[in-house]
């Protein structure tokens, strides 16, 4: 069965590139460009891994992380950020994020982290 990945990020170009790459690697990939849409998809599809951008247009990525941990506790989480805000990262760690990646990152690094989380 295909593993499901959800990407919650409002940077359309980057999201599309990651989506296509992961689909070529055999993953089923869904995307959401807002916290609200991301939380709805978490409930609907129960992804194996969710990548969450820290800065979303309608809420903090930590709100999506919190909702994910409540609604789909087995889902692995990767927090993604372009600028490290230590307070936000500490909060994400307390909520229970599994790992985090700093932008810019390469596609191989994303794949490596996902494979580690799913191993």
Keyphrases for this structure?
five-stranded parallel beta sheet; alpha/beta; Rossmann fold; 119 residues; single chain
Could you characterize the architecture of this molecule?
It is a single chain. With 119 residues, this protein is α/β, with parallel strands linked by helices. 48% of the residues lie in helices and 21% in strands. The protein has 5 helices and 5 strands; from the N terminus they run βαβαβαβαβα.
Can you describe this structure in just a few lines?
The chain has helices at 12-24, 35-45, 61-71, 86-95, 107-118; strands at 4-8, 28-32, 49-53, 76-81, 99-102.
How are the SSEs ordered, and which strands pair?
Blueprint lengths: L3 E5 L3 H13 L3 E5 L2 H11 L3 E5 L7 H11 L4 E6 L4 H10 L3 E4 L4 H12 L1
Parallel strand pairs: 1-2, 1-3, 3-4, 4-5
